[in-house]
Write a structure and sequence with these properties.
- The protein contains no helices and 20 strands.
- It is mostly beta strands.
- The radius of gyration is 18 Å and the shape is globular.
């Protein structure tokens, strides 16, 4: 996690499901909360129709890097909309039906289906078939030259290996998709994290220091 803004509550990243005519639409994401001091009321205010605003509570997940708590939110599923606008704050002026002094974010079923706010990169999806582990990473396009790498282990970090990801496509003007493929023995317990090197700075997605973990069938 690499925090750049000074707000007390800020969006790390958020996403909505990719289009599926048989599935419900929703928005979910992670927030960074600085020095909550016992505060338990962090809200996400959302609308599916740009008219009626509703509120959903975020819930704490863990403490990361001392002063930041990670909170998670998810809006209720809907079958009647394919767009969600939302804001994040602990202060909501219901008389205006919108969040005061906070950015408004938008997710759609088609594009964009992911927002990287404070996060610079985020694991997008994985597929495991016959010992081949393939995945996609969304990376913020801060500079043209970048190196995206997966660091992984099958023996609980006694040893580890790295596999370079490769550019796949532009998701938007400021987001890119990078793909990777790793071959690991069937029956392995795989743990991994992803990092991106840009302008001499290393940005990590390590699942908030827990690393990602999957069992290879």
């Amino acid at each position: 996690m690499y925090i750049t803004s000074s707000n007390t509550v800020k969006l790390l990243h958020a996403r909505s499901p990719e289009y599926n005519p048989c599935s419900a639409f929703f928005a979910e994401g992670y927030l960074a909360v600085q020095n909550p001091d016992g505060a338990k009321n962090i809200y996400v205010h959302y609308t599916y129709d740009n008219v009626l605003w509703n509120t959903v509570s975020a819930s704490p997940r863990r403490v990361v890097y001392g002063i930041y708590d990670v909170w998670y939110f998810r809006t209720p599923p809907t079958y009647s909309s394919s767009c969600c606008c939302f804001t994040i704050d602990s202060c909501f002026d219901e008389s205006y039906g919108k969040n005061i002094g906070s950015s408004c974010y938008s997710l759609r079923w088609y594009s964009p289906t992911i927002i990287l706010a404070e996060s610079v990169l985020n694991l997008h999806s994985i597929i495991i078939v016959d010992g081949t582990f393939t995945g996609r990473v969304v990376v913020k396009n801060l500079v043209y030259d970048k190196l995206v790498t997966v660091r992984y282990t099958t023996d609980d970090w006694v040893t580890c290996k790295e596999e370079a990801a490769f550019f796949s496509q532009c998701l938007s003007d400021d987001l890119e998709i990078w793909d990777y493929k790793i071959t690991v023995p069937c029956g392995s317990s795989l743990k991994f994290a992803i990092y991106c090197l840009m302008n001499g700075i290393t940005y990590w997605d390590n699942n908030f220091t827990d690393n990602y973990s999957y069992s290879i069938p």
